[in-house]
Design brief:
By secondary structure, the chain is of the alpha+beta class. The longest helix has 18 residues. β7, α5 and β8 form a beta-alpha-beta unit. α5 runs parallel beside α12.
Length: 620
């Protein structure tokens, strides 16, 4: 199914130039606007203004009480209702994001201005002089009636102004290095480490867009079913899809995703409470709970060009303030994978933990939207769910807050400097591997294989075997060719799309049954090919007709106490019979001898046992 996005553009005068923006312009720092100081911006330290709430005391860990204590009533979240009025609001937001994808910033500005009385949103062009880049920021205006005193009498950490809508922050990079990369942080406040790390990933990787939710999960929830738990949140965009956050995700996906050959990749950043998930590594990485077979960029079984190997053997090898801090990759990262993945280093092969925990909540709206029509076996990943430990064991203990979360209050980039440094290996690895797959288009086909066996199983089935594996990081399927005339480009072939051949997605396979032949197997020629997700097709293998098959009407005659005679039916075309045997201490049948007749006498010894297998060699 291909999604079709219906977008109604209203209140728009289309601009002829992407850069001819005539609206609000600011000079400063994106880092400062999101998490620090930006004096020339309309306001700064956006994260300090996020709507806060507590529905169940102690249920979620928001960090140390002095960091950014939650205050119920600081800001709010406006639910977009079901019905025509709510639908019109979401249609308007989709128009905003569609215009942003097209670089029509005057159109974005026009829609926001027209809807400002109801939405309270504006567009700013932010020239970031610290990194030499320009960003377009869709942000909510502050409501100064909300004041957060942060539970003490000091005014130095007071925050004036929060959000009445709480719908989030949307940042666009008009010149992205990775135009098919979207960064999301859906759980501010609770996942407090996710924003500084996700912000750095957005900047360093040159992503297309960044979405940050504007309200904590406990700000608004379904009070009909107490007590509160996160599944009942209405201000959580991973659970409530009637919000601009989801409208942004859907619009960007519909307009930018090019399917398996050119996917829009969403990296959704979370952080987890150590007390509730102590068995996890510092990074819990998955392709979402419905996908236990991660593909590039998470896992590359062919060449190991993937996130795990980009981390290196020792991701953390000393920090600025403490050179003794080290973290090996198998202690630093876990990957939800079946079977469990391994790190293949030059001298070490390490097991990477695969734990079924925090893989994305069931019903995660962004993950489910991205995974509609996603083939978990073969498609490169288009959604990555990452949970980072809020208190990694190598750095934190209950008395070490000044080192782990230092700096001023309310929190800024300085507060999280050590946390960002500790997770910089993750940022760098993601940047490296995503750029590899998004910038370096795959033009190489899988390896060509050699077909060496075609065994007749029944009147309509053969078993094909080939070598070597058709290794490819974006492998899609083997292609089993069959034809009653010599194999050609016009010959029919079977792929993993046939239900009984679904395991042809795995390039490690080197054999498969081909069924439903309409003529006797001896009437066919066979060959094997393969292709990757980018449509690169390997050259076909050599061609074989049936090479062997089972004998018919086998009988066993005891000739003497130490001799058995085997007899079987001879068929036209038989030229040789191959005899293999399995001894009690063997693990597989091994070749024993050939016979050019349809009978064979076998000597046997007392107390010995063996299993014999005889196959017809139809063609050498």
């Amino acid at each position: 199914m291909i999604k079709k996005l219906a977008i109604l553009l209203f209140f728009i005068t289309m601009s002829s130039s992407v850069w001819a923006f005539t609206g609000l312009g600011e000079v400063g720092s994106l880092r400062g606007f999101v998490l620090g100081e930006c004096p020339a911006c309309g306001y700064d330290n956006w994260t300090s203004h996020i709507s806060e709430g507590i529905a169940r005391e102690g249920y979620n860990d928001y960090g140390p009480a002095w960091l950014d204590p939650q205050a119920s009533g600081f800001g709010s979240f406006t639910l977009i209702p079901n019905g025509p009025a709510g639908d019109a609001t979401l249609t308007g937001w989709r128009a905003v994001f569609a215009a942003a994808v097209d670089g029509e910033w005057n159109a974005v500005d026009s829609i926001l201005i027209a809807n400002e009385p109801g939405w309270h949103y504006e567009l700013a062009e932010l020239a970031d002089t610290s990194i030499g880049a320009t960003f377009f920021v869709v942000r909510e205006s502050l409501d100064s009636s909300f004041v957060d005193v942060n539970t003490d009498t000091s005014q130095t950490d007071d925050v004036i102004g929060s959000f009445a809508k709480g719908w989030g922050l949307f940042v666009f990079n008009p010149t992205p290095a990775c135009p098919k990369l979207l960064i999301e942080m859906p759980h501010p406040e609770d996942d407090f480490i996710s924003i500084p790390v996700g912000l750095e990933l957005f900047i360093q990787a040159g992503a297309r867009a960044m979405l940050i939710a504007g309200a904590g999960r406990e700000v608004l929830w379904n009070t009909q079913w107490p007590p509160y738990d996160n599944s009942k949140s209405l201000s959580d965009p991973t659970r409530n899809n009637r919000c601009p956050f989801q409208a942004a995700h859907e619009t960007l996906f519909d307009l930018l995703d090019g399917g398996p050959a050119d996917p829009l990749l969403t990296v959704q950043m979370h952080s987890y409470d150590t007390g509730a998930h102590g068995s996890l590594k510092d990074l819990q990485i998955s392709a979402f709970r419905d996908d236990q077979f991660p593909n590039p960029p998470l896992r590359d079984l062919a060449g190991h060009i993937d996130l795990i190997h980009a981390l290196g053997l020792d991701p953390v090898n000393g920090l600025t303030e403490d050179e003794t801090i080290h973290r090996r990759v198998d202690d630093y990262a876990g990957l939800w994978s079946q079977p469990a993945y391994k790190f293949f280093g030059p001298d070490d092969t390490l097991d990477i933990a695969s734990i079924y925990d925090l893989l994305g909540a069931a019903g995660n709206q962004q993950a489910e939207y991205s995974h509609d029509d996603h083939d978990v076996y073969a498609d490169p990943e288009n959604f990555i769910h990452i949970e980072i430990d809020e208190y990694p064991d190598a750095l934190w203990n209950p008395t070490d807050w000044p080192r782990w979360l230092a700096g001023p209050l309310p929190p800024t980039t300085e507060t999280y400097a050590l946390a960002v440094e500790y997770y910089q290996p993750l940022i760098s690895a993601l940047d490296s591997v995503i750029r590899y797959y998004q910038v370096n288009t795959d033009t190489l086909p899988p390896a060509t294989v050699t077909l060496y066996q075609a065994t007749r199983l029944t009147d309509s089935e053969v078993y094909l075997r080939w070598t070597p594996e058709a290794a490819d990081p974006n492998f899609d399927t083997y292609m089993l060719y069959y034809d009653t005339v010599e194999i050609s480009d016009e010959s029919p072939f079977a792929t993993r799309m046939q239900s009984y051949l679904s395991d042809l997605y795995d390039f490690h396979k080197t054999g498969s049954i081909l069924r439903d032949l309409t003529a006797p197997p001896e009437s066919y020629f066979f060959a094997v090919g393969s292709r990757d997700a980018y449509g690169n097709t390997a050259s076909r293998s050599n061609t074989l007709s049936v090479t062997d098959g089972p004998v018919d009407s086998l009988t066993v005659l005891v000739v003497s106490p130490d001799t058995l005679e085997l007899n079987w039916e001879s068929l036209p075309g038989d030229s040789l019979y191959r005899v293999s045997r399995l001894l009690s201490y063997d693990t597989a049948f091994v070749f024993w001898m050939n016979s050019d007749s349809n009978w064979l006498r076998i000597p046997v010894a007392a107390d010995s046992q063996a299993i014999y297998r005889i196959s017809r060699v139809i063609r050498e």
